[in-house]
């Protein structure tokens, strides 16, 4: 049984890098093959033993709630037409009543602020933060790997992966201490360093297990890079006070917040599907 029961999904961002698709449709609802991006993260959390799912939404995001609701007319029609397979598929991931909670971030003041908006729903226990744009495919759920690492260390754990040196300026980068297998002790975190200043190639990816003390730091509402309340700044203040590690997760990550990353996610997800793999190869050969 997992010791971490709650996960926060901050989904209040504007998704400007994916415009014009995201002018009306929330980025999190863009499909990767035939599932919206956010469903992958929810299923990953569920597979890791998470029981309560907290979505921090914003204006124009109400269709996210509809997606996790029972669509009466659709379910009824499928039943009447005896489309049992389609019906069973829809039933299989529909969250149990009362396990999904929505709160709103009234202004997009930054990721740290979005997480802070969930403080009363989380209370005084460790919790997962999952950035749904980071689609992680793999046989073992990344969230589950982080929870196990948290159970081992008792502290904060962030998902990490080694990136090419020329890409360090796109990520938060860990300054590593002791490295034991997949567990990387974090001495410090440097936000988007140029390659020559990067303390390592361990980039922080959008899955975290955080101690509730993070809320004390977020409470100060201090503005960081871009004038936003940054989660990274609050995490950095916890270094030294609590164990802090990166965990080199085993899956592969695709950045759906970016156009090329989104295309890559679709190809990667389709290539894992027995019903699509062969056809996908033909399509790619024809166009690329
Ligand atoms: P991003 O940096 O990807 O920002 O946020 P964004 O607004 O979603 O996308 P771009 O950069 O404009 O294209 C990372 C995560 O933090 C959430 C986003 O929804 C995304 O999941 N976020 C960000 C919030 O919930 N609130 C914020 O104020 C900022």
Report on the structure:
- This protein has helices at 37-47, 62-67, 72-80, 84-93, 111-116, 119-122, 142-153, 214-218, 231-238, 259-271, 277-287; strands at 6-10, 31-32, 35-36, 52-57, 100-104, 127-130, 134-137, 156-162, 172-180, 183-191, 202-210, 244-248, 252-255.
- The chain contains 11 helices and 13 strands.
- Strand 9 and strand 10 form a beta hairpin.
- The strands form 3 sheets. It has a 9-stranded mixed β-sheet with strand order 5-4-1-6-11-8-12-10-9.
- It is globular.
- It has one domain: Spore Coat Polysaccharide Biosynthesis Protein SpsA, Chain A (Alpha-Beta Complex).
- The model has no long low-confidence stretch (mean pLDDT 95).
- It is of the alpha/beta class.
- Uridine 5'-triphosphate binds next to helix 5.
- Uridine 5'-triphosphate is lined by residues 10-18, 27, 56, 105, 108-111, 113-114, 131-133, 257.
Question: What's the SSE blueprint?
Answer:
Layout: E1 6-10, E2 31-32, E3 35-36, H1 37-47, E4 52-57, H2 62-67, H3 72-80, H4 84-93, E5 100-104, H5 111-116, H6 119-122, E6 127-130, E7 134-137, H7 142-153, E8 156-162, E9 172-180, E10 183-191, E11 202-210, H8 214-218, H9 231-238, E12 244-248, E13 252-255, H10 259-271, H11 277-287
Parallel strand pairs: 1-4, 1-6, 4-5, 8-12
Antiparallel strand pairs: 2-3, 6-11, 7-13, 8-11, 9-10, 10-12
This protein binds uridine 5'-triphosphate.
